[in-house]
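fyi for ur records
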Amino acid sequence: MRAADRLVTETVRRGGAWPAVLAAVSVLGAAAQLALPLVLGTTVDELVAGGPGAAAWPAACAAVVTLAVACDGLGVWAAGASGACSSAWLRERIVRHVLGVGPAMTRRFPEGELVTRMGLNAEEIGRAPESIVTGAALLIPTAGGVVALTLIDPWLTAALVAGLAALALVLRAFLATSTSIAGGYQEAQGDIAARLVDALAGARTIAAAGTADRERARVLAALPRLRRHAMAMWRANARAGVQAGAVVPLLEVVVLGVGGLRLTAGDLSAGELYAAARYVVLGAGLGAALGHLSRLARARAAAARVVELVAEPPRGYGARSLPAGPGDLELRGVGAGVLADVDVFVPGGQAVAVVGRSGSGKSMLAALAGRLADPPVGTVSLDGVPLPDLSRAALREAVGYAFERPVLLGGTVGDAIALGAGARGAATGRHRRGGTGAPGEVVRADARAVCADAFVRRLPLGYDTPLAEAPMSGGERQRLGLARAFAQGRRLLILDDATSSLDTVTERQVAAALAGELRDRTRLIVTHRAATAAAADRVIWLDGGRVRACGSHRALWSDPAYRAVFQAGTP
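which gave:
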């Protein structure tokens, strides 16, 4: 069984009790459909013959019809509930896995593509229980129709079986074709979504440059491909519908012809002939599975796309804790991305600036130091312990990370600062500096260190202001990102160009905090500013993915190539 089909099967199992309810009402409804022709045929014969039970049979017909209608209604409810449960389980699994893999996932799949697979594709897979259960339930009337016709007259069965064989071939070919077409359609949807998310991220730049028309054309470039697949799907449905639809009337004509001859010969009654005609329709009702197969094909294609996500290996963690130490950071023989054979040792408690031209590997070095990425070659260790050997809790307690464009998470501004390890420390009233203040005091202290306390207090509810109601500039968001980082890593603080949007005064105050109250931690600072590099204890100069030099900013400044790194417009 393919991995995608296994995922579809698992989704059916995760639908809770609703798939079982749907199966039960589908079987009961199918039984009612099978019973209805027999009851109707018997009613006709009893009414014609004027027997003693003629008055009771119409009531039996009404009861069977009522049961069939009730089963249909409950089946619709169960189908919706099972789809909701299955989609919810699948989405939670995908989100947990994507977050478990970490940044490596977004390096392979664009954000818009991830949203499409977790949203629309997961919903399509969630409809699989309804398609499978309801489609399988159609086999009951088909099998019942074959058995009933055999009991009425074996000669009528041969025509039905021949027609069902042809119908099965049509449905099988349709499922294979539809799955392939649906996969192409979903890929085009993901392409459009990925382009749209990119465009939204750069909406201000697009508006300022006046390139909205060009960007719209880029986003919708996959639209002709989407239309092509949609038309192919429509044609496949139409072709299979015509082929399946032609079977039913042909079977009815054949069976009625044979049945008429048997009626004239006295081998069949009028009621039996009517029942036989109805059972032919029920037996050929397998053609109604076309719609269910179409949904199942989309579910299988969507499952193949989701399987690609869950196939990404999640980030593994060890079980070790860090020994007592100053926060020595060491990269030995590291190769990752543009970095090649990098050996770096950062003594604990030092502030080290990482500089270099764009594309030299600065952000990759920072990502490796904080274990946002693992190097394919070499090792990264903190106080002598390789980062992959650390437990999740030990790593998150030890390392704090601030980004150039921080994404703020949490319900309120205060929650955004206290996120992660800082939230755990704040919850117990402990502070990284050994204080025992209340959670609010901890958050405010970190905000004051990066000049964020003043503008946060001006918000309508201060630190309790919901993030969605707190408009902030890029510099203000960077300050909150820095405050969040300060509240976290107790041994290693990594700033990946995290002060680029700060004004000069604020940057100096952040530098003072890094050199003052945070001096007990190792600080790795990726920067493009000469002033930030000058304030550091040491500078790591990257060039072409390799360490070109290490030393003080003053010593390196004598090299014209080093000075060129900080010149505006230098590539």
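The first helix runs from residue 3 to 13. thats all i got for now
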